[in-house]
Amino acid sequence: MPINKQPVDVVIIGLGWTGSLIGMEMTDAGLDVVALERGADRTKEDFLYPKPADELKYGVRLGMMQSPRTDGVTIRRNGGETALPQRQWTTFHPGNGVGGCGAHWTGVLYRATPTELSMKSFADATFSPGFLPENMVMQDYGVTYDELEPHFDLFERIAGLSGQAGNLNGEIIDGGNPFEGPRSNPFPLPPLPRTLTDTLFTEATQSLGWHPYPYPSANVSQAYTNPYGMQLGPCNFCGFCSNYGCLNYSKASPQTCVLDALKRRDNFSYRTQCDVRRINKAGDGQTVTGVTYIDGDGNEVFQPAKMVFLCSFTLSNVRLLLLSGIGQPYDPISNTGVVGRNFTYQITGSVDMYFERHQFNPFISAGGSGQVIDDFAPDAFDTEQHGFIGGSYIYTTQGPGGAIGGTRVPPGSPSWGSEWKRNAQREYGHHMMIGTTGSNMAYRDCYLDLDPNYRDPHGDPLLRMTYDWKENDMRMTMFMADRIREIVDELGPDYHTESFHKVGDQFDPSHYQSTHLTGGAVMGTDPQTSVVNRYLQHWDAHNLFVMGASNFPQNMMHNPTGTVAALTFWSVRKIRESYLANPGPLMSRS
Amino acid sequence: MPKNDFQPDRRALLKGSLLMLPAMGTGIGLIATAGADEAPPHIDDYTPTFFSTEEWQFILAATDRLIPEDETGAGALGTNVPIFLDLQLGSEYGSADNWYMEGPFPKGAPAAFGYQLPFTPADLYRYGIAATRRYCQDTYQADFPELEAKRQIEVLSGLENGDIHFAPQQGRELPSATFFSFLLKNTKEGYFADPQYGGNKHMGGWKMLGFTGARASFREWVDQYDRPYPLGPVSLSGERG
């Protein structure tokens, strides 16, 4: 028999960025809120210097991440293959514990552009009829940039975003990103200081006629107090950022920006090591009654709640909806159902350059430090003449120069022995990267469902990812590779190596690509093609709300966290304004 | 402005070093040469707990070939890399506690699917070491550690290239290149990971490379372009090198 807990107003599944922000908003509304986190607690004790500065524990053994043993996923590239599990994480790094991905992220904080939020409308207005591939399933988000702008702005103030505005209320500002959507306010803080790689990239791209700007960084450039009264200290470029917790209270995270303020509230509590197994459906067919979880002692517990917020990672959100039987699972053959539909990723590539003449000191590094160009955004140039829809940003960032992950030797040279040592010693600190991160369109045969063969320790099926690279997106990344080669020519390294995908390549999950997995529980205005409505309310259960990048109908070129947070505020403000007084569907199904 | 033309002088270095010590004044104790109370052992005085005596002799000889001591700096033996391997393989890493290790494990999975063998790292080392020693006996009538260095390098290259074939165990074959990739990856981890994990003795690996370890505070150095960073590494325990 499960243990029955006292009912609460709100239960939050997953205490990362979105769960923390929902906690603030719903306790503000005077409701009793309980958050359930399946991983461990993470408090400031875990981030005290020098604990995070441990490359083996965090950078290599991935100590901040979920365990594939308990939370695995299988992958195949098409319906003809048998999916196999990620036995260790390789291609992405899903976070675990309080803070979630927000504790180990890099701190690059972007907004979606107006075009990216309305991609279908943009495509219909811009591209020749019949240009887009037949199996591409493009959708608008159902919310516009203007509607989200105040929420982008609020989250950037919570995170202490450091950078340079490029578009302030429609006025283009020198040194910022001229291709971004209009901002109502400047950045809360100025950009981080420039590294050598930043300066080289800036000079080269300017001489090519492009528009470099500083990475919008949630590693703060100056001491800062956010609207919740949380305080951040200036980033000291410690070199331990992506995959690590911050040892300097400089990287915006649920811990540094929200949780100490939230934990002070009497109407908020959270429980760790609580693994939610099901969202419980009500007999009325229109609502959910709460959640069932396994606690740290192995007890099955039922937590009744008036409202449920699903705030876990993209893959976990989709899996829990499928396991709970809420919403119709997507079937790519009949093209029916919605849960698991429009699963997308990001398209990345990079070059690595060796300069004997430069000393970069690659251990001097901040995750959000770097320089970027958006001159090849989806709406910045005529992509149709190059054979694709979509776009990418091109960037550099210094380091990270960890000894295990940061050694470089010339291609074709030995990987061990004295020659390897000589090369590694000579070249350490003399390498610079340029990368590209690009949009990924949704396709009818790229989706998530439950795996028929592999199960977790509770006997539940793993999530199965069916995903491959498509010609449109490969054409895009090949175009970007050519632009990066122009920058390489400007810079004139002694040699460089390339890592780009091309048309015909298949998805290769054996190497790290990105943790920007999106879609599967997408938002929209049509219940036939979306899991949640434009307020992130589940079409089939009006007291269930789904947060996170699983809402994205297709992926943008930029990093997702800013858009995830803005959508969270957009949803919860509507809930506070309309839903609490009058619970029910916020949009009609027809 | 970037200081591309910076000429270091003693006064600036001293001033810089005062600014840069991350733990200065925080009571973490960077002052003492660390490890004074628990100095890392000499490799010859260590008794392995995971590896058998024969396996240990193989690991000593193989890691010495992978990262030899030479003019660039310390090697695997001088930095206790075999101790790192012994401790890692006897812990949760060796038993793959976090990995998804439920079957089925189909044979011939494409490389794109990553590691798809049923062996934990501990299993893989036991199998790989035994199979390599058997290959040396069959081919050279001698155990690996007894071979001359040139021959050892040939054997290791044979593993790396997959030219040596291991006999199946319980119906499953471990590709020799897979064994070698684990051995090399873990050896480099031991050479470059913080000394608290048993290798990188006195931060010899970091000194060879020029890595600063857990120093982790560089704000004043961000715009000092093309200037080598002058301070040595710091370990998690506060040892300075």
From TrEMBL, chain A:
- The UniProt record lists the Glucose-methanol-choline oxidoreductase N-terminal domain at 232-345
Coiled-coil annotated residue ranges, if any: none
All copies of the Glucose-methanol-choline oxidoreductase C-terminal domain together span: 444-567
Question: What Pfam families has UniProt attached to this entry?
Answer: GMC_oxred_C, GMC_oxred_N
Database matches in InterPro entries: FAD/NAD-bd_sf (IPR036188), GMC_OxRdtase_N (IPR000172), GMC_OxRtase_C (IPR007867)
* Keywords in alphabetical order: FAD, Flavoprotein, Oxidoreductase
Protein family membership: Belongs to the GMC oxidoreductase family.
What name does the UniProt record give this protein?
Answer: GMC family oxidoreductase
* Organism from which the protein derives: Salinicola lusitanus
